[in-house]
Amino acid sequence: MDGPSVFGWLTSQFGTDPLAGALAPQGVGGSQGSPAARQRLERFEHTPWFQGILDTLWPAIRGAVEHELLEGSVALKLASAVPGLRFSTASLGNEPPQLHGARTVPGEQTGSMCTIFDLGFHAGSTINICIALGPVRASIRELTFRGRLCLYCVGIKPRKPVISGLRFFFTNQPTLSFQFGGLAAALPMNAEKLRMLVLKVISDKFVLPHVRSLHLDVISGAFAEAGFLPYHKLHSPAPHGLLRLCVMGLDGFPFAATHYVNLRVGSYQQATDTPAATGKQGYSGWQRDFGFVVDLLLDQDLQLELYDKDKEGLLLTTDRMLAHGSVSINELINQFRASAKSGSMPLARVEVRGTSSNQGPRAGGVVTVAGSYQPLSSAQPAQGAGQVTYLLQVIVDCVSGMNEEREKKHFSVRAQVSGATRPHSICDVSTPVRVAGRGVVANSRFLSAQVANDVLWGEVKKRIRLLYSKGGKWTPEEVSYVLPGLVAPDVAARLMKDIEKEGTGHVDADGAIEILFEQQLRLEVDDPFTQGLHIELLQEPEGYTVGVLEWTNLGWVAGLSPMEDDMQAYHLQADAASPGGGTETDCKIYLKRVLMHRRPDPPAHERGGRR
Predict the structure, then answer these.
(1) Long-range pairs for 177-180: beta carbons < 8 A, 24 or more residues apart
(2) 422: phi > 0 → left, psi -120 to 50 → alpha, else beta; which?
(3) What is the rounded distance in angstroms from the CA atom of residue 19 to the CA atom of residue 11?
(4) Strand pairing partners for 540?
(5) Measured distance CA(6)–CA(290) in Å, rounded
(6) In Å, how far are 56, 208, 305, 309 from 326, measured between CA atoms?
(7) Closest CA to 437 of 556, 501, 552, 517
């Protein structure tokens, strides 16, 4: 929130005890068991024909999930947490997931449509997943999974293909539970730690803002068609708004100095301090700001979890979850508005339900939050808008031109806002880790009209070189005819000139070491004319800086209308001081910057505050 913090504003408006009477027992809403949440689930329709498709595709889907998720990302996390810990077997079994319902709604952008599936997976007796450390093995049993999977159709047009692209993602972090069998007690990792590790991997890959995409324009060869969908608009959609929250208190659970609340919107999570860390009695130490970017107002939730901090773990600490609950972002906004209209502070109350029998049978409580929601726009702020703050969206597409020794190494991109920043603002973020490979961008893209020429037309250039190698002279019209649907004559002429200039020293795209990120990073900016942007390409897990890119300020982007530049290539400068600083001479990162402003908070009387 601009200016004073959420808690600071509440204190100034309502005195030194802003919670007086606010936590008195009364009706609450917003948890998974609330009337509003139940009504949302009731709107899902039974779709047996979707279930039939899923049943048919399950063997292929299962193989992909086992290979990429379990044997790939999760296995790497296991080995990183405990050297030698691995999957001895990783089979999800023959029982396919169950579609409990589906609903289709218009998308939030023009020409889009969103279908949301209530997806559940209850693995039967055919599941065979075992974790091993040396000769010690523990099996996973009674595995259940539940989440809302979204199929988002982008670029609906009156031409073939009718849909330009598809996004697949979970709107919120799914729920996961299982039990250990066998010699689990002998392993240094318990079931709760493994559950959190798996959910982290799923969030980094499939939970907003992380999406998986399928570019149908490319698959159908519609490169020259009007309205070809840019890649970044498919894999990195613009966020909807910024949610500012302050956790005001907890009612219904005994006080403990080791309690804290974890807050999550999409894959991004933040946590309060424990009362012990703040040195305060009671939960007043929780009262500080949290900022969350909302991507899909249609179906995203604020998820809350009450934890007891682990003070006894030696090798791996595991905090114990005591309660959890959620409220839809729409319902949260409505509660803020209703509270403000009545002349009270903008409060919302979220019901949380206990998860441990130690707290009694299904013990419950209420977490009270205050805050605001502000939509985002990349249009220039109106004249006389007063103080305006911004969210910077950095779209990281790919990296090319890396040295041979980088192949199969792991990398991430880190973005930081330089200059003075407000406490607790989002000013330092990183992409999930990706693996460098030979020609991964060219092989996954086939062709893209939105990245620089060395990656854009790599596949077409390779085919033209093949024609040249067979001898004879070719005209641009003949090349266009031989490569139908791939390149127009004028573009073929330009590419042929590029190839003639290359001589014999060219390296095909298939031989280049590249990283495909297709990720976006979000950072809060107060003043784009005095604050800059620092980008680093890091080799993981060592954290070595391979290359850097820096802007001293963002004034040029702020002066555009709309406030965004084009997707383009930037040379990464090698960091000689870093152990990972390479000797790449042509290493490029392809990215795009978008500034979105959010309106400052309205005057207190417009928020229902006292004067």
Answers:
(1) 177/142, 177/143, 177/144, 178/140, 178/141, 178/142, 178/143, 178/144, 179/140, 179/141, 179/142, 180/138, 180/139, 180/140, 180/141
(2) beta
(3) 9
(4) 410
(5) 9
(6) 33, 16, 9, 21
(7) 517
Q: Is 468 exposed, middle or buried (0-12, 13-18, 19+ CB in 10 A)?
A: middle
Q: In the structure encoding, which two tokens stand for residue 540, read together?
A: 């993981």
Structural tokens at position 425? 């603002």
Tell which residue, 53, 187, 164, 68, has the closest CA to residue 109.
164
Residue 73 CA from chain centroid, whole number: 16
**Is a pLDDT exceeding 60 seen at residue 299?**
yes
Task: Phi first, then psi: give them for residue 157, nearest 5 degrees.
Answer: -140, 160
**Two tokens at 475?**
């005209």
Mean pLDDT, residues 56-81: 89
Q: What tokens were used for 505?
A: 């020293």
Helix axes 458-469, 489-502, angle to 10 degrees: 70
Tell me what the mean pLDDT of segment 220-232 comes to. 83
pLDDT at 156 over 80: yes
Mean pLDDT of the chain: 81
Measure the CA angle with vertex 127, ends 208 and 45; round to 5°.
Answer: 50
- Residue entry with tokens 């570019």: 215
Distance spanning both ends of the chain, measured CA to CA: 20
DSSP 8-class letter at 600 = P
Strands (E), 123-230: 128-133, 136-156, 163-170, 175-182, 212-215
The pTM (predicted TM-score) of the whole model is 0.80
Query: How is 319-358 classified by DSSP, letter by letter?
Result: PEEEEEEEEEHHHHHHHHHHHHHTTS--EEEEEEEE--GG
Residue 340: CB atoms within 10 Å: 19
Residue in the block written with tokens 């692209």: 165
Residues 115 and 104: beta-carbon distance below 8 Å = yes
| Rounded-to-integer distance, Cα 221 and Cα 445, Å | 11
Token pair for 98? 């169950």
pLDDT greater than 60 at residue 601: no
Residue 89 and residue 93: Cα distance in Å, rounded? 11
Pairing mode, if any, of strands 544-551 and 573-574? antiparallel
Residue 341: its pLDDT value, please? 81
